[in-house]
Amino acid sequence: MGAGVAGLAAARALGAAGRDVAVLEAQDRVGGRLLSHPVGDRGLDLGATWFWSNEPRIQALIAELGLGTHAQHLEGDALYQDTRGVQRLQGNPIDGPAGRVTAGMQAVATAMGDTLPAGVVRLGHAVERIEVTKDGIRVYAARLEAAGGESVRVAVDAGAVVLALPPALATHAITFEPALPEALARLAAVTPVWMGAMTKAVIQYARPFWRATGLAGAAISHVGPLREIHDMSGPDGEPAALFGFVPPRRPGAPTPTADAILRQLETLFGPEAADPRDVHVVDWRDYEYTAPPGADGLQNYATYGHPLYRTPTLEGRLHWASTETSTEVPGHIEGALAAGARAAAAVLAG
Ligand SMILES: Cc1cc2nc3c(=O)[nH]c(=O)nc-3n(C[C@H](O)[C@H](O)[C@H](O)COP(=O)(O)OP(=O)(O)OC[C@H]3O[C@@H](n4cnc5c(N)ncnc54)[C@H](O)[C@@H]3O)c2cc1C
Predict the structure, then answer these.
(1) Residue 240 lies in a domain
(2) Nearest to 113 by CA among 12, 1, 2
(3) In CATH, what number is assigned to the domain containing residue 341?
(4) Is the residue at 81 inside a domain?
(5) Within 13 A of 255's CA, how many CA atoms are on the CB side?
(6) What is the mean predicted confidence (pLDDT) over 172-196?
(7) CA 138 to centroid of ligand 1, rounded, Å
(8) 268: in domain
(9) pLDDT above 80 (res 149)
(10) Mean pLDDT across 161-181
(11) Residue with the nearest Cα to atom 3 of ligand 1?
(12) Helix %, strand %, coil % for the chain, to 5?
């Protein structure tokens, strides 16, 4: 369950091995933390943006799916902002080489979903309960009949279940019968959701005006609200955009306003920065299918890839697969792909 990258990777691997698969997905779209705002046939990323050259799974997948890519824009000078003002640095020590998917990173999940037979991915199915039965495992989900309407309860019987969502969210939203082993339930409840407490702002402009004055569009700020800023433009600067992160703050801190973000960008990049085409401020704490309440208080990253996530439970029928459970680059898309592959292999071996 969960049609993020990890769940889709597990479903593809199980389907390829001849198993019958269903992916129950709570939202009305695939991708989870891959979320892109389309601009023509290109995309601005409100969730994950980059992949890196030392990540073979995501690179191979992008090539297999035939998605166009471009390099992160690096050229120009970066800026540094603190309480004394703004300094222009020589060159750009903030950005490193990384790849981008030109249609937006969500296209990876959409294209993965398109490789599965029709009917495998079931959108709008929020899993609420998982129960071991006499000869298998039963998953109960609430299926929304119409936007804003009633939901009906559906049950799906299976031989095994892959939980491809952040562990802290799984233990918050799903009842298990019998209960999960205590150590596993405790571990899952304190495992941070990668970027689940992050706010990302994406600001689209008519043109990448900062490049004309030799700026890279990159900045580090100790003043805020954005701590770290990067160029998010497409190839040849189209669409033109900057993006920035508001780092996790005091739990429960309010989301910065678009106005406050634009004022900061104006101070950094000049008057044109105050005149955007579009502003998206996405606080991932608000996404009920990414982060449970209080996720901004979870800090113990040493829980990532814990051996308990590789130990099937509930009579060997329950497996974990989100990026947080990966031993390889946990947190990244690469980690989600590795976790999905590992969970599928465990199901096949079971
Ligand atoms: C702002 C931001 C920036 C990031 N930047 C990068 C980056 O540049 N590079 C990188 O590699 N990674 C980045 N990441 C991390 C990357 O997005 C994740 O590693 C990856 O998307 C995780 O995939 P997943 O399948 O493990 O989990 P998710 O994407 O969270 O998928 C879980 C799925 O389960 C579904 N679900 C939840 N609850 C239920 C339920 N009860 N029933 C059914 N379905 C349910 C969700 O809707 C979702 O579709 C970023 C993440 C964020 C938020």
Answers:
(1) no
(2) 12
(3) 3.50.50.60
(4) no
(5) 14
(6) 97
(7) 24
(8) no
(9) no
(10) 98
(11) 48
(12) 30, 25, 45
